[in-house]
Amino acid sequence: MNYKRFIIHALSLIPVLFYVQTAHAVFQQGVAPSGDDGGLIAVAASDNKYIAVGIFSKVLQSNDGINWVKQAVPDNGMTTYKNFRDITWGNNLFIAVTQQSIIYTSPDGENWTERSIPVDPSVYPDLTAVIYNGSKYFVTATYFSSPSFTPTTQILESSDGVTWTEAGTITGSQALSLGWDGSQLLLGGSSGEIFTSTDGVSWIQQTSVIDPNLTVTAIASNESDLIVATGWHRSLATSPDGQNWTEITHRKTASELAVGWSDVIWTGNNFVIVDDKGIVSTSTDGSTWVDDETFIDQMLLKGVASIGDQVIAVGSKPKTGGGSVSALIYEGSLSVTSNVAPTVSAGTDQSVTANTTVTLTGTATDSDGSISTYLWEQVSGTTVTLDATDSIDSSFTAPDATTAETLVFSLTATDNDGSSSNAQININVNPVSTLSNGSTNPSTSDESSSSSGSLNLFMLFFLSLLFAVNKISLTRNKSSSI
Known about the structure:
Methylamine Dehydrogenase, Chain H, four-stranded antiparallel sheet
C-alpha cells in the first residue's frame, strides 16, 4: 500500500464517526470539537468509552458515541504531527501506534504517555498494528531494508505497555494487521499473506486465499472456531484454525472491485466489517452477510469497535467546508437477522393427455428481499423439453405415452442474499384412447362408462316395449277365442 498517497488523499477529508445498532436507523449528529479536520483511521473501546485516532495527531474521546472531545498527545519535538495507524484496549490501558514509530499509552484516553521502543529510527519503521492477547501487547513495525528494499516486519511485545522488547522478525513481508484467535496470533501482510504464531517469536506462513497483490487489512476471531480476514478489492476469507482458509464472495462484482474492506471485529455475537463505500456488514457465520447501505458512497469507513451491542465505526467523508464529526445511531441491539429463504410453489398437480401442451405456473415471494433467479428442472419421468427454465412460468409438450405415467418437476427460487427454496409438482400424463375405426379419442374411462350405461338403458327400454307388445297380442288372441 502506498501510504504517502493515502495521507495526501486524506488531507481532503473530514472525520466521520457513527454509532450503529440495528437495521432500523435513527440519525443523530455527533458533536465534534471546533476546527476539527483530518481523517480518522482507527477506534478502540474500553468498558465505558471510545477512543478514535487519525492523522495529524488526532485523538477523539466519547462516552456515548455521540459527543466527542479532542484529546492531546505529547509532542516529542521530532515531528510536528503524528499519523496514528491503530489503537487497542486491554488490561486497563489504551495503546496507540503511529506511522512515525511512536507508541502512546493511556489509562483513560485523556492522559497519554510516549513509550520508548527498540527500533532503529534510521530505517523509519512504520508501526502498523497493535493488539492485546489477554496477557501481552503486540505491535508490528515495518520498514524496507537497504539496499535491496526488502520489506521487513519487526514484532514488538510488552506485558505492561511500558517496557517493550523485540519478539520476532519476518523478512520479506510488510505486516499491516494483527489478530488473536484465543490461542495464536495472526498477522496479515501487504501481499495477501497470513502468518500465525503462538508466542510472537516464531511465525509460520499459511496458505492464503487472498490475492497476493492485495493487502490483508484486518483479522478478527470469535476466539472459538471462526476467523475472518478482510482485504482490498472485496477480499474476504474465513478459517476455523488460521491454517485452512476459504474465500468468501460477497459484493465482489466488477463495479466494486476497487473497494476494500477496511476493518473487522467480533462483538461477542456478530462479526462486523466496514468498507470504503460507507457500508456496514454483519454476519454470525462469516459466510452470509447482511449489509446496511445507509451511507453508501458517502464516506470512507476505516475502523470499527464495540461496547456490548453498541458499535462505533469511524472514517472520513469529503470535505465540504469546515470540519465536523458526524454520528449515526441505530436503536436497539446489534443483531443479525438470519436471511429468510423464499417461499415457493410450483402449482397444483395436473392430469393431462399425451401430446398436449402443459403449462407450469409457479409463484415465489421473499419476505426480506427480492427474488433474483428462478430455475425449472425435471426430476423424473419421460424427458421433455421445457420452453423456459429461468422464469417463473414454463411449458412443455406431454410425451406420447402408451400407458399412464407421472412427470415430476421442481421450481427453485433464489433470493438476493443467496438463499433458495424449491417446490415440486406432479404432472399425470394419460394415454390417448383408440376407437374401433382407428381414430383417436382422448376419452376418459368415465365417458366410456357413461356411454355404456346409456346403451344398457336403451336395451332395457326396447325389451320392455317388446314385452308389452307381445302381452297385448296374447290378450287379443284370447278374447277372440272366447
